[in-house]
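subagent[fold] <- orchestrator: predict structure for attached chain, return tokens only, no commentary.
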Amino acid sequence: MFDYHAIAPELILGVTLIAVVFIDLILSDRYKYLVGVTALVGLTAAAFPLLTLAVCGDLSTCADTGSRVLFGGSYVIDDFALVLKGLFIVVGVITLLLSVGYIESDDYYQGEFYFLVLASITGAVVMASSRDLITMFIGLELVSGPAFLLAGWRKGDTRSNEAALKFFLIGVLSAAILLFGMSLVYGLTGEVTFTGIAAASAALDLANEPAFVLAVVFVLVGFAFKISAVPFHFWAPDTYQGAPTPVAAYLSVGSKTAGFVGLLTLCYQAFGPVREIWGPILWILAVLSMTVGNLVALRQTNIVRLLGYSSIAHAGFILVPFAMAATYDSVGLEDAFFGTVTYILIYAFMNLGAFAAVIAISARVGSGEIDAWGGLGRYSPNLAALVTMFFFALAGIPPLAGWFAKFVMFRAVIGAFSSPWAIVLAAIAAVNAVIALVYYARVVKTVYMDPIPEHADADSPTVVAPSLKLALAITAVAVIVVGFFPQILAFFGDASRALASGM
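subagent[fold] -> orchestrator:
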């Protein structure tokens, strides 16, 4: 009997997609808000099967039967998949909360917007369970395709059109490179499943085969575009600035995390026996992403562009444990995997919170330029406190959640200190953490210490949409609580270690 319980989240999301389209067609403009409500309800409903799958492998007895393997090993529901599926659904809920007031503030097509967000989230959920090249690629393109359209949602804005065009062209290029690399992998191994590729590469000693090395490099480059790692990052800041701000928030977290899911599963499972190929490449990407992202962020005057380069730098930090994989033993690999996943989980809440604060403040002051935020703390202290909290969390300042993300990242590298390359990488990461603090603190300094701009309307009341308030509350509580009790998210990071244990 087919295991419908295992794919219940995907089925619920599919039904929600159809419902969103149908409701949008039959409702008048007055009731279009119900489309967003339907999308939120569907996403929330999709989270419940994740809980039952986590504790009840068999619904008839509620007995844990371990991982679910479907379609000949191409689709697996294990702890790693459940953790990342849950993260994608939470990211989707927060993204929709950020979007409601923004979409209603102008003449936007609400139904299509919510449909595209849901479709992209569905692709990310599929990627979390993908264990073969075909399913992984389909899931990745389902993430990316709707995102191209969302980036250009402000159709009358030339900057938004430019953002969508750049994102589309780079996305198509990266997909072509990734697909070519995957085709080489299949041609050399005769396998599409990740376990089959790992077994074939070890048996055939493909680590010394130039064509296989080239295939691995192409796959890494394809995903490097998706996570906006340097030097494949140049699309990200322009796209974030031109896209609607809620879409930029989603791209910086949901889309980026989907790229990391692909990297994690492919490198740890399919390319596990050839760590000596991808380890040094990721070391270089980590160093370049941290350094370039942080240095260029120092020069930014627009808050969204600053967060764009900040997300590039954080991609480098997330890659740091990854980068030393070639020097780890089996225990060290699991620690590195734990560090990467835990950083991703914490980063999601910090960055979504930062973008939520940006949406609220930009609506209040009428500008996304950092100078326009001068003196915000004197006439809107609540928003000033929120932006301070989220930006200091991104900088890794205790007791906010970001300190633990940095801690697990450094701990994973320290575990490889027998290699001089690990010492160099840790030193570069430490320097970059200080650089990041400089530009985050500069924003906070502007909010509290700079004079109020002459054109600012400091006397008008601060109005924040209820949905945006809820998004701010969720992310703020997560950043504070995890800062004091990091074991909450560490539990989920630890649960996902199993993916690395088979290497």
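orchestrator: received. Logging for downstream: Residues 274-503 form one domain. DSSP finds 20 helices and two strands in the chain.
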